[in-house]
């Protein structure tokens, strides 16, 4: 799904004008990003929750040259699925 498709679906589901629907989704994205960057979790109703996870430093390899390199520790966004959503995937 593209951003334009998401805006269109949100607009149709809520009855909001297109510009207002896009603004709401942009603000929601800002709120979610701020919460994750602050170390919190973001609930996604009926799906699960987004969480920020720490990654350890590790050794890697440049796929083009084969040269070894050090990959620093960092953070990534992960999702913890709800029990009901996991069941619906089976």
Structure description:
With 90 residues, the chain is of the alpha+beta class. The chain folds into two domains: 1-38; 41-90, IHF-like DNA-binding proteins (HU Protein, Chain A), CATH 4.10.520.10. It has helices spanning 3-14, 18-37, 83-89; strands at 42-44, 48-55, 58-61, 68-71, 74-81. The strands form two sheets. A three-stranded antiparallel beta sheet has the order 1-2-5. Strands 3-4 form a two-stranded antiparallel sheet. β1 (42-44) and β2 form a beta hairpin. α1 crosses α2. The radius of gyration is 18 Å and the shape is elongated. The mean pLDDT is 93.
Helix-strand layout with pairing:
Blueprint: H1 3-14, H2 18-37, E1 42-44, E2 48-55, E3 58-61, E4 68-71, E5 74-81, H3 83-89
Antiparallel strand pairs: 1-2, 2-5, 3-4
Helix pairs in contact: 1-2
What is the level-2 CATH architecture name of the largest domain? Irregular
Residue stretches low in confidence (pLDDT < 50, at least 5 long) are none
Instruction: Estimate what percentage of residues fall within beta strands.
Output: 25-35%
CATH class categorisation of the largest domain: Few Secondary Structures
Given helix and strand content, the structural type is alpha+beta
The portion of residues assigned to helices is 40-55%
Which term fits the overall shape?
elongated
- Helix tally equals 3
Report the CATH superfamily of the largest domain: IHF-like DNA-binding proteins
SSE order: HHEEEEEH
């Amino acid at each position: 799904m593209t951003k334009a498709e998401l805006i269109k679906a949100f607009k149709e589901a809520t009855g909001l004008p297109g510009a207002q629907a896009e603004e709401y989704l942009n603000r929601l994205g800002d709120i979610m990003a701020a919460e994750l960057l602050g170390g919190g979790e973001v609930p996604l109703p009926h799906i699960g929750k987004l969480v920020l996870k720490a990654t350890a430093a590790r050794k890697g390899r440049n796929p083009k040259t084969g040269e070894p390199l050090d990959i620093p520790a960092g953070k990534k966004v992960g999702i913890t699925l709800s029990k009901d959503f996991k069941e619906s995937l089976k």
